[in-house]
Design goal:
348 residues; alpha/beta; Rossmann fold; 2 domains; seven-stranded mixed β-sheet; four-stranded parallel β-sheet; 13 helices; elongated; binds 6-O-phosphono-beta-D-fructofuranose
């Protein structure tokens, strides 16, 4: 078979490990040739690809980023986009496309697959907000990076008796904030799923000081907002205001700075904020993510050879399964509130 593979959306540790697994499994197990499309759906639209060499792919396992490049190009936002995708795949005689991406990229794969394009999805995002899989690859690495950052913020916060706000990624869901907050022993975890009460946060900080805990780490997901509409509007204004991307997403970031300012003003405690930003997305994947990415890549090639298209490979109860792409996309997997309950005794 001639396989196509692409990586779309925000990059993520483990993308290259999936590419490696697809290329080598296809070659060794089935005698496939794999073409890598450059820069996500943009490369398919523009007919830009290159044959991936199984021998050269061997070194990709621990490499961060994606050797194929990525973009947030949406074929459905372009004139004749779906037809151009089909024509491009036909020109290269592609039998099946392995699409590695999050909700947007796999949403495109789902729509194309309902139009007859033979696609198999692989769930990627550091945010871990894709439905249908227990976990996406890249999330574990992001949590590890954020935890290390929180540990470091803790020592300087303690030295200066400060409140430290750590802003992490998480547009629709606060998975990174929750897990890194638990792992880093945060005093507060604020997530998009639970609009927060600023006065309550301030009261908890004051109570900590009264108990003799003179420093605090607050972890806030970029998508978190206060419950109070006026404060939410004020916090929203702290965002960059950049134009939305091709999928309609505004650029987030800024809640950490806004929050630190509010806390300092309202409590009188010195506060600082750190935005981890793309540091969470860069660098080498953890061993967990290398293994998960490899399992996903192998499972995707097996699905292709079973003729099982329009599906996403997923992790369920520790096993590799296949679920319909339509069940995975369009409704983010939000944080399990039970997990926040685990954090609860340690907050405040
Ligand atoms: O990959 C998802 C994500 O990490 C979101 O949490 C974040 O809002 C977005 O990517 C930022 O991506 P970029 O700045 O690369 O457009």
């Amino acid at each position: 078979m001639r396989l196509g593979v692409l990586t779309g959306g925000g990059d993520c540790p483990g993308l290259n490990a999936v590419i490696r697994a697809v290329v080598i499994t296809g070659h060794v197990r089935y005698g496939d040739v794999t073409l890598g499309y450059l820069d996500g759906w943009r490369g398919v639209l523009e007919g830009r690809s290159r044959v991936l060499d199984p021998v050269a792919s061997a070194g990709l396992l621990g490499m961060g980023g994606t050797i194929l490049g990525t973009s947030r190009t949406n074929p459905f936002a372009q004139e004749d986009g779906p037809e151009r995708v089909r024509a491009s795949l036909a020109a290269e005689r592609i039998d099946a496309l392995v699409v590695i991406g999050g909700d947007d990229t796999l949403g495109v794969a789902n729509r194309l697959s309902s139009m007859g394009v033979p696609a198999v999805g692989v769930p990627k995002t550091i945010d871990n907000d894709l439905s249908g899989t227990e976990v996406t690859f890249g999330f574990h690495t992001a949590v590890q990076t954020a935890t290390e950052a929180i540990d470091r913020l803790g020592t300087t916060a303690e030295s200066h008796h400060r409140v430290m706000v750590c802003e992490v990624m998480g547009r629709h869901a606060g998975w990174i904030a929750t897990e890194a907050g638990i792992a880093g022993g945060a005093a507060e975890i604020l997530v998009p799923e639970v609009p927060f009460d600023l006065e309550e946060v301030c009261a908890k900080l004051k109570a900590r000081h009264e108990r003799g805990q003179f420093f605090s780490i607050l972890v806030v997901a970029e998508g978190a907002l206060p419950a109070d509409p006026a404060l939410a509007e004020s916090a929203g204004r702290a965002r960059s205001g950049a134009a939305p991307d091709a999928f309609g997403h505004v650029r987030l970031g800024g809640i950490g700075d806004w929050l630190a300012g509010q806390l300092e003003r309202r409590t009188g405690f010195e506060a600082r904020s750190t935005t981890l930003g793309h540091i969470q997305r860069g660098g080498t994947p953890t061993a967990f993510d290398r293994v998960l990415a490899t399992r996903f890549g192998v499972a995707a090639v097996d699905a292709v050879h079973d003729g099982d298209f329009g599906i996403m490979v997923a992790l369920s109860a520790g096993a590799m399964v296949r679920i319909p792409l339509r069940d995975a996309v369009g409704h983010p997997k939000t944080v399990d509130l039970g997990l926040l309950e685990v954090a609860a005794p340690f907050l405040g």
